Amino acid sequence: MIYLVEDDDSIRELVIYTLQTTGFAAKGFSCASDFWREMERELPSLALLDIMLPDEDGLSILRRLRETPATAKLPVIMLTAKGTEYDKVVGLDSGADDYIPKPFGMMELVSRVKALLRRTEPEKKGGFYQVGPIQVDVGKHTVKVNGSPVTLTFKEFELLCYLMDNEGIVLTRDQLLSKIWGYDFDGETRTVDVHIRTLRQKLGVAGNYIETIRGVGYKMEEIG
Predict the structure, then answer these.
(1) Rounded alpha-carbon distances, angstroms, from residue 15 to 7, 18, 75, 100, 156
(2) In angstroms, rounded to a whole number, what is the distance separating the alpha carbons of residues 33 and 213?
(3) Tell me, what's the pLDDT at 138?
(4) Taking the CB of the first residue and of the last residue of the chain, which one, N or C, has fewer CB atoms within 10 A?
(5) Who's near 181: CB < 8 A, 6+ residues apart?
(6) Which of 19, 67, 26, 68 is CA-nearest to residue 45?
(7) Would you call the peptide bond into 69 cis, given omega within 30 degrees of 0 as the criterion?
C-alpha cells in the first residue's frame, strides 16, 4: 500500500490513478490529519509527501515518521513545487529517501517508486561486516560501534554496508548513487554527501573510518 498526502485534488487523483493502473494499491489524502488517522489503521509500504499542506507540512510529517520506531525506516519520497538546493538538503537531512520537484511525469514517479521499493525490500541474505569498532549484522539489520547499538535509516544502512563490503576501495559518488538509490540522479551527488555526513555523525568517533577522497568519492578503511 502506498499513501500520498497532496492537497491539490487534480494531482492527487492523477497520481493515485497512475499508481493503481500500474499495479500498486494506493490511497490519497488531502491533509495530514487524514493521513495520520489512516496510519493508525494500516501502515503503508511507502509514503509520498507534499511539502506544502494546509494543516501540517510534509517535512513535519517526515520528522514524526522518523522519530516513531514503527515508521523510522518507512520509505518516503517528497513531492514539492520547491526545487532549490536548500529545500532538497532539508528534506534529505530530515530522512527522506528521495525528492521529486514538481512538475513531474507520472512514469518518472512510478519508476522512482519502483526503484525505492526495490532497494528497501527486506534483506534476505545474511552477512557480517566489521571495520575497526564498527560491526554490522546484515541479516539482523543491526549496527554497533564499540558494542553500542546505532540506529540508521535504511539508506544509511545500505550505504554503510556497501562501503564496508568494498573496504579499501574508492567508490565514486556516481557508483554510490547507482548502487544505493537504484537509478541515475543526473549528477545529484549532493544526495550522497548529505547521507555520508549523517552516517558519520551517527557513527560518532567511528565516522572517521569513512574517508573522503577529494574530487572522487569515499572509501571505508581501517585507520592505521
Answers:
(1) 12, 5, 17, 13, 28
(2) 45
(3) 87
(4) C
(5) 98, 115, 116, 119, 155, 191
(6) 26
(7) no
Q: What is the pLDDT of residue 100?
A: 84
Other CB atoms within a 10 A radius of the CB of residue 6 amount to 24
51: Cα within 13 Å, side-chain hemisphere:
20
- What are the contacts of 83-86 at 24+ separation with CB within 8 A? 85/190
Per-residue pLDDT, 92: 64
Task: Tell me what pLDDT residue 174 has.
Answer: 82
What's the chain look like in SS3? CEEEECCCHHHHHHHHHHHHHCCCCEEEECCHHHHHHHHCCCCCCEEEEECCCCCCCHHHHHHHHHHCHHHCCCCEEEEECCCCHHHHHHHHHCCCCEEEECCCCHHHHHHHHHHHHHHCCCCCCCCEEEECCEEEECCCCEEEECCEECCCCHHHHHHHHHHHHCCCCCEEHHHHHHHHHCCCCCCCCHHHHHHHHHHHHHHHHHHHHEEEECCCEEEECCCC
- Report the alpha-carbon distance of residue 175 to residue 216 in Å, rounded: 10
Q: Extract the residue ranges of the chain whose pLDDT is less than 50.
A: 123-124
How confident is the model at residue 90, as a pLDDT?
A: 63
pLDDT at 119: 74
Cα–Cα distance, 201 to 210 (Å, whole number): 11
CA–CA dist 1, 8 (Å, integer): 21
- Residue 119 CA to residue 103 CA, distance in Å, equals 25
